[in-house]
Amino acid sequence: MLILVVNTGSSSLKYQLINMDDGSVSAKGLCERIGIGGHIKHSASDGRVYEADRVMANHEQAMEAVIELLTGSEYGVISDPDEIDAIAHRVVQGAEVFPKPVVLDEEKIQRIYDLGEIAPLHNYAAAQGMWACRKCFGDKPMVAVFDTSFHQTMPDYAYMLGLPYKYYEKYAIRRYGAHGTSHKYVAERCAALMGRDISELRIVTCHLGNGSSITAVKGGKSVDTSMSFTPLGGVIMGTRTGDIDPMAIFRVMEKENKSPADMVRLCNKESGFLGLSGVSSDSRDLHSAAEDGNDRARLVLEEFRYQVKKYIGSYAAAMGGIDALVFTAGIGENDATCRAGVCEGLEFLGIKIDPAKNAVRGSEIDISAEGASVRTFIIPTNEELAIAKECAALVFGR
Ligand code: ADP
User: Fold this and answer.
1) What is the domain class of 2-146 according to CATH?
2) Per-residue pLDDT tens digits for 255-269
3) Which of 12, 205, 334, 338 to mutate to test the pocket of ligand 1 (most atoms within 8 A of CB)?
């Protein structure tokens, strides 16, 4: 069975064609600068790579280009689009409307589009991607898998924000979280690696990448998560502020005469690692700069670890204890210094990692020190495979 996983951004479209028999990726790629020019990179699993500028006026043209590459004689991996059994779309915001993945029809796509009201940076683009696929693939089964679904089990006292209640009722403003597919996947892998039933475990999952979120998973359910109304909340990230006192935003607006739209851009694209350090949004660049004596790069790295550490402590409190800690995503999987810094000082909770085991990169491994009562793991996330599996289960019952 072949499933095409599609992840649409406002000017981008990422795709992976996954063979569900063994979970392997037959081909993957990225269309960028859609609507403002166009660039495609496509790789087949046997190493053939196509990369070129190509004008794509909209997502439909991008999808046409993807189908052409997937089926073409030079870079293709299938001979006919009909060989694809289903299409799975990643959607950032499902809100309370979509607590689970759904098989798409026109009405559901429209509801996803309408949720763009609370997720303008993500949902409009996701719906455009779905409409583009409809045009290119006709009635082929399509599924939407939401980043927010896994967090729909949070209790109200964890998801309500301290604004007047009427804004929850009128505008659906509350904590939704994100990266749900990843948190669910690594929590389930963690239970499997421990040989325990997830229903009896308290796990803190740390998805630390360009965007980062930390989740408290109790009995296999998300009970709290650091991202909030949008993926801007929580810890400082590559270019996002994370949680800050809203008064700080009003002060900058006032002093610099900025509009709400300016502040959305500033808080999402110009802040976090990049804005604080003035160096880069990429943690590898920050490590090099810190080694060269750049004090603001050092500050960012320390601040990030400190904030993640505080979430682990608060989620252990929220769950009445902690049995396992998981690191995943770009930083979580690859940055040993970050993992060591986060865990340092958490011995009082039973968290202690082995420096030699922690020195690995990107493999599924238990890095706990001998005698630690909390098991700490690195578990590489695989959001696309998790999305494809949800799709296969929903459409084909397997
Ligand atoms: P996204 O949220 O875009 O999916 P990723 O999960 O790919 O992001 O994570 C990107 C982050 O991972 C970047 O900050 C990058 O510097 C970091 N990263 C990747 N490899 C390493 C590494 N070897 N050491 C430290 N950080 C790394």
Assistant:
1) alpha beta
2) 999 999 999 999 999
3) 334
